[in-house]
Design brief:
This protein has a five-stranded mixed β-sheet with strand order 1-5-4-3-2. The chain is globular and about 55 Å long. It is α+β, with helices and mostly antiparallel strands. The chain is built from four helices and five strands, in the order H-H-E-H-E-E-E-E-H.
Length: 135
């Protein structure tokens, strides 16, 4: 969840994804497993305090006898603030993503995470995030 991520809880953040996760970021075209995503998070958390603000724009949940799935379309803003205060924070990135979720015995987990590359999709969330991190 975003709360776990913003609190720097690595295990909790990574466990929101299924092991067979596929993540596609249109800018850099990366496809990752949950383990690769966890390694990236660990590296970022070691030297930065990353923060994200997101808002769901659309959601559909399908529960059937065969299985349960849901998709969400969200806008987000993201910043990485270095723990070393002599370095400046990253630029605030904002865009839109679509996620396909699957119901497990524990909870809903992300199976597919697609960054839509819609840069500039969340200027209001950029403003909100900048206030949160004191920029």
């Amino acid at each position: 969840s975003i709360e776990k991520y913003n609190a720097g809880v690595l295990a909790g953040s990574a466990n929101d994804y299924l092991p067979q996760l596929r993540a596609l970021q249109l800018k850099s075209v990366k496809i990752k497993s949950r383990d690769e995503l966890k390694a990236d998070m660990q590296k970022n958390f070691a030297s930065n305090t990353p923060r994200i603000v997101a808002e769901i724009e659309e959601m559909e949940v399908n529960v059937s006898a065969v299985g349960a799935w849901a998709y969400i379309i969200c806008r987000y803003a993201f910043i990485s603030v270095p723990k070393n205060k002599s370095k400046p924070p990253s630029e605030v990135a904002d865009s839109r993503y679509t996620a396909l979720l699957q119901k497990t015995t524990e909870s809903w987990k992300v199976l597919l995470d697609l960054d839509n590359g819609a840069v500039g999709a969340a200027p209001d969330l950029v403003t909100k995030l900048k206030k949160q991190v004191g920029q």
